[in-house]
Design brief:
196 residues; elongated; mainly alpha
Amino acid sequence: GWLYKDNITLPLKVPQEILEVGRTLPQINDDEAIEGSVNLWLSLNAQALPLPPILRLIPGICAYWNAVKSGSDTTTKLMDDRALYPPHVNCETIATTRLLLLAVVLIHRSNQIINAKKDLSYPSLAHYRDAASHRTTFHNTLLSINSVLTKEKQKKDQEVSANNTCTPLRSNNGGRRQLPLRQLTHGIVPQPLDYG
């Protein structure tokens, strides 16, 4: 084997016949995936044992993204972890739910900024984010919002009941719901469904 020779220099170029076999397998994306896996394997075997946990190994492009990313993916993660489940799911309810959650994330981030130290002398952005997460979590912000909204609803209900001087409307049909007028719909008179 080409892989088990002495004095291998990295990065190792994988032979063409191995790459051709890889192209026949749908699980392998491309030649770079094979070469990256081989070179990672060789690099790990050159390390002193015991090896670090494999979960801690992050590909270079992912490590770079994690270092320079903005807050957009953390916002998405916050929203996905606290999904709201509306009773009727369609495009409009999903979009509305996402917009509401985006507003809640904005409230959460604003709360973290307001409660930060005055001088903001953190060594790095990572230190600030860690400190902000320890001051208040997204879950605690959701609980606070729920508490405020519940109190406001109770206050509004008390105001409405105190100011309610109107008498309820009475119908002349004995309390039964009045059926709508039957009209033609595309030339057909709608009929009630009978499941009996």
